[in-house]
Amino acid sequence: MGAVTPSPAQAAEALASRGRLPEALDLLRRGVAESDPDAAFTLAAWCLSGQHVRRDLAAARQLFERAAAAGHGDAEPIFIAFLANGTGGTRDWREALRLLARRSSGHREANEEIELLEAMQLTSDGDPATVPEPEILSSRPQVALYRGLFTRRECDYLINVASPFFTRSVVVHPDTGQLIEDPVRSSDVAAFPLAYETPAVHALNRRLAAISATAAEQGEPLQILRYGTGQQYKAHSDALPNAANQRICTALIYLNDDYAGGETHFLANDLKVRGAAGDAILFVNADRDGRPHADALHAGLPVTRGTKLLASRWIRARPLDLSAPGATAA
Are strands 303-306 and 259-261 parallel, antiparallel or unpaired? Predict the structure, then answer.
């Protein structure tokens, strides 16, 4: 048998790895012009990540749309996500739902998502029609509890879609620059950056924006955290040192309650919180000038039995600059 001829996308990746980027780009662009779905998807991924080319979210969105139209199976969900959350262009919630509904006829996960969205009480633009009233647990630190902010069905959805993507929590070693296991947080984590912020996840993020009186664009990617027996998040502040765009508040949503231990502990006043599945707490890390609140130091206490699952979203003072190289939300 003869050698298998690589596709334009495969050949472009090989050329780029050897430093022959102009040839790689020319090959991909010709493939896009010829409606090659893999070429369009590969170039879209480069534009999204900033790998090999300058980061260009508008170009990424257009290329994912072209890849989806040409039949690339992984491109359509990303294009739908971009329509829902407004990445790379105008946000079009209704068109995102229309495409998701069309996709649901042949994809079980899209059908389950449509059913979940239909059960939510949303406005025509995807905002929550109502949110629970807060229970003020503490004024210093500022901590509010929202009972039943997420339904159990929504909690299960987040757990299920996150489960295949859990990895150990890591940080960058300050001396070597290598990724190492987080010495403060011993957990597994899965995140939903914008390419994977499905309409359902985006609707939940807009609910978190509503309770925090912020815009959805101010939030970092929603994270799902999994703590097994003995795992914990040691005392820490969510505020960033000398940040130009500070994490002003944090939303935590308890996704299950069949475990022991694992309370969220605020050290300043010894407040310990453990919500039922779907309950959320919102607490303030810093003022709007970026000055961290010392009394917002908190910990996730060790789990003593079972597995604790938690959703977390850090919310900034201003919308994130997603055009910046290395921006984490895309």
Answer: antiparallel
Domain ranges of the chain: 8-119, 135-316
Q: Which fold has domain 8-119?
A: 1.25.40
Using DSSP's 3-state secondary structure scheme, residue 323 falls into coil
Burial class (CB in 10 A: 0-12, 13-18, 19+), 23: middle
48-106 confidence digits (pLDDT tens)? 999 999 999 999 999 999 999 999 999 999 999 999 999 999 999 999 999 999 999 98
Structure confidence by residue, pLDDT tens digits, 169-207: 876 555 565 656 778 888 999 999 999 999 999 999 999
Query: Residue 36 and residue 29: Cα distance in Å, rounded?
Result: 10
pLDDT band for 321, please (50, 70, 90 cuts).
confident
Structure tokens at 161: 């879609």
Contact indicator for 122, 132 with CB cutoff of 8 Å: no
Question: What are the b/e assignments for 153-192, b being 16+ CB within 10 Å?
Answer: ebbbbbbebbeeeeeebeeeeeeeeeeeeeeebbbbbbbb
The amino acid that residue 291 corresponds to is: R
Tokens of 77: 């969900």
For 135-316, CATH gives 2.60.120.620
pTM confidence score: 0.93
Whether 135-316 and 8-119 are alike in CATH topology: the answer is: no
Rounded to an integer, what distance in angstroms lies between the CA atom of residue 166 and that of residue 185?
A: 14
